[in-house]
């Protein structure tokens, strides 16, 4: 591992245009000073970090999260991953992974089973009568793709 600034003379083949060498932070890696196989490893790590970066948005631009369909009312209202216990504002269903996997299961995050809540949404627009005061009508952009 090279340490910068060097304590003695610069490595062979290095030339400086200034009277003193450029001082770099300890985390800086100079690929030209590394053996080619080690430089390739560092370049691959750097490229991997670039791919994992979040998309950049401009100032004032809204950050748009991917949306998912509510398993109960089927409207595109959930912004978190499926099973994250997010509550749908249209039918007031709490997204529970156990009830997603077993739609007939009663209990857990919701009192009703998913199949019963879906029937309730078709009948009166909420997952249960107890939450009817908390629901809202769906927005046009929340309609499933097939319904547009």
UniProtKB/TrEMBL annotation:
Superkingdom of source: Bacteria
InterPro entries (alphabetical): Cys_rich_CPCC (IPR025983)
Domain Cysteine-rich CPCC: 69-142
Alphabetical list of Pfam families matching this protein: Cys_rich_CPCC (PF14206)
Entry protein name: Cysteine-rich CPCC domain-containing protein
């Amino acid at each position: 591992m090279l340490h910068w600034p060097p304590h003695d003379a610069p490595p062979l083949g290095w030339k400086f245009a200034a009277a003193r060498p450029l001082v770099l932070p300890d985390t800086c890696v100079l690929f030209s000073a590394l053996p080619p196989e080690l430089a390739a490893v560092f370049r691959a790590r750097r490229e991997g970090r670039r791919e994992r970066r979040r998309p950049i948005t401009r100032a004032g631009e809204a950050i748009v999260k991917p949306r998912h369909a509510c398993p109960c009312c089927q409207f595109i209202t959930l912004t978190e991953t499926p099973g994250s216990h997010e509550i749908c504002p249209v039918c007031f269903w709490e997204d529970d992974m156990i009830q997603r996997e077993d739609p007939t299961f009663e209990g857990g995050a919701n009192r009703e089973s998913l199949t019963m809540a879906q029937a309730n949404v078709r009948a009166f627009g909420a997952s249960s009568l107890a939450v009817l005061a908390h629901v809202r009508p769906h927005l046009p952009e929340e309609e499933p793709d097939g319904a547009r």
